Amino acid sequence: MGLAQNYVSVSRRPPDVEDYIDMLRRYRSWIVGPTFAGLVISVVIAFMWPDTFISSALMRITPQQVPERLVPSAINSQMAERLTQMQQEILSRTSLSELIQRPSLNLYPKERQRMPMEDVVEQMRNRDIKISMLDVATQGTNRGLAAAFVIQYKYTDKYKAQAVVRELVSKFSEQNVTVLRNQSSLTTSFLNDEYKAAKEDLDRLDAGITKFRTENQGRLPEQYQANLSTLQSLQQQLSAMNEALNRNQQEKMLMETQLQNYRTQLSFYQSNLEDTSLTSTQTIKNDRLMNLNKKITDAKSQLAALREVYKEEYPDIKNFKAQLAALEKERDELEKQESAQQAAAPQPTVVKVINPQVAKTIEDIKSSTALLQTQIQAKNSDIEERVRQQAQINKQIAAYQARIEASPLSDQKYAALLREYNVAKDNYDDKAKRRAISETSQNLEERKAGENLEVLDPASLPEQPAEPNRLAIAGAGTATGLILGIILAGAKEMKNTSLKNLKDVRAYTNLPVLSSIPLLENALLVRRKRRLFWLAWSSAIIIGTVAMSGSMFYYFSTRI
Questions:
Q1: Is 8 helix (H, G, I), strand (E, B) or coil?
Q2: How many C-beta atoms lie closer than 10 Å to residue 353's C-beta?
Q3: CA separation, residue 337 to residues 50, 139, 286, 307, 552 (Å)
Q4: For residues 155 and 161, is the Cβ–Cβ distance under 8 A?
Q5: Per-residue pLDDT tens for 287-332?
Q6: Separation in Å, CA 447 to CA 37, 65, 150, 440
Q7: Cα distance between residue 136 and residue 84, in whole Å
């Protein structure tokens, strides 16, 4: 059996500058080849890549011309929100499909042949069309509002790119006008319907209140104080009427008593109408005695009338009693004197004669009786009228008391109706105000004096392509090839573990080097290798140059 071999792991010697130079010399083909290939490939790609032109337009959002504090806008969204909505509609599949297939444009003919329309529209929307908002802070607020926006479109034909941007600008302008008019019309129509509904509700409640007021006339809450005052006034009238009625009844009783006295006096005087007339030696009954009897009779009549009304302690009754006693005393004394005179005188011859004074008194009593009867009849009529008025007042008092008693229930129903009416009226006023504002705003939009879109910069015609950047692509391809070549050279160096020079021999053997023998190769083989090397490189350079020249020729020929 053979003995096992022992392997020793030796770390690589750190390379120095000379080693790196030797590496570049040894692996120059590995570095230059990928670098040249990257240059050729990047140049071919750069010049085969068609030019893409970007056309752009700037649209500005103009604020409302009339101050908003004078005419509030009926549009319920900011312009930025409307732009997003318009952008969705303008960049929709239907709109972009029509734009792509329009004969005057005929966009993406190659893509349409190999892709469905949905993918072409998606590519146009997401890759080629760009809409950027320019935010400007509004004075007095902390939030930004879109004050302007840029519409960009990139395409291989600069004229078509400009036409597409111009078409998009036109669509934005038209769509903005359509959106504003639709929103204003929709708002006005909606507020008109709300206004009509509020008016119908208000009219219904107004008719209900009118019906309630008609059915409850006199029992309304605002008439409560008037009813109460009227009731108090009627009660006062009733009290005054009762007092007047009592007074009339008392006066009637006094008149009836006086009438009875007149009748008594009339009977008395009629019985004394024929008086006894004496002879020439005797005189007629003393006139003074007759007057006293008349006064006594009148006093008794008045005293009887007062006793029917007042009590005995009444001062007038006491005075009449004293007067009547004095008159009776005077009459008694006069009768005693006359009796004494008649006893002393001789018997006269009696003759029946009519006393003129008594006859006159009887006529006066009759006229007074007739007048008093007329007054009693008038008093009876007045009493009947007052009784009738008293009944009417009592009826009115009962009616007003019923109104006052029914007032709480009426108050509750009326208050509920008024609350509903006030709510409906506030709603009606609010809807009327909003409708007026909406109509004014609609007129403002029709005059294009509201918030609007203005084309600040029209669609531009690009003179230079925006992409590709051919120098950058060529530089990037060359750098990529160089990096790849360095990586390949490094990998080749790491894989090669042979000793390259005397430094490696000394480092890995730790032995002194006395001399070195150069590598001896066959001259024919060496020449053959060189010819193959230069042939390969010449072919690569020629092919690369032809490829780059062909791509450049193709690019410049298509631009003409």
A1: coil
A2: 11
A3: 174, 133, 11, 33, 184
A4: yes
A5: 677 777 777 777 777 777 777 777 777 777 777 778 878 877 777 7
A6: 66, 10, 26, 11
A7: 17
Q: Other CB atoms closer than 10 Å to residue 334's CB: what's the count?
A: 15
Q: Which of 558, 553, 468, 547 is nearest to 38 (CA)?
A: 547
pLDDT score at 177: 75
At CA 428, angle to CA 424 and CA 434, rounded to 5? 145
Q: How far is CA 560 from CA 161, 431, 471, 556, in A?
A: 18, 67, 21, 7
**pTM for the whole structure:** 0.48
Task: Give the tens place of pLDDT for each residue, 9-67.
Answer: 556 667 777 777 877 778 788 888 888 888 889 888 888 888 788 899 988 777 665 55
HEC profile of 432-468: HHHHHHHHHHHHHHHCCCCCEEEEEECCCCCCCCCEC
User: How far separated are the first and last CA of the chain, in Å rounded?
Assistant: 83
User: What tokens appear for 364 in the block?
Assistant: 């006066």
Q: What is the 3-state secondary structure (H, E, C) of 483-533?
A: HHHHHHHHHHHHHCCCCCCHHHHHHHHCCCCCCCCCCCCCHHHHHHHHHHH
Token duo for residue 505: 């021999």
List, in sequence order, every residue forming a beta bridge with 53; answer none if it has no partner: 155
Q: How far is CA 377 from CA 49, 247, 254, in A?
A: 136, 15, 13
Closest CA to 47 of 545, 473, 466: 473
Distance CA 504, CA 516 (A): 13
151: part of which helix (H) or strand (E)? strand 144-155
Mention every residue, 6+ apart, whose C-beta is less than 8 A from residue 47: 470, 548, 551, 552, 554, 555
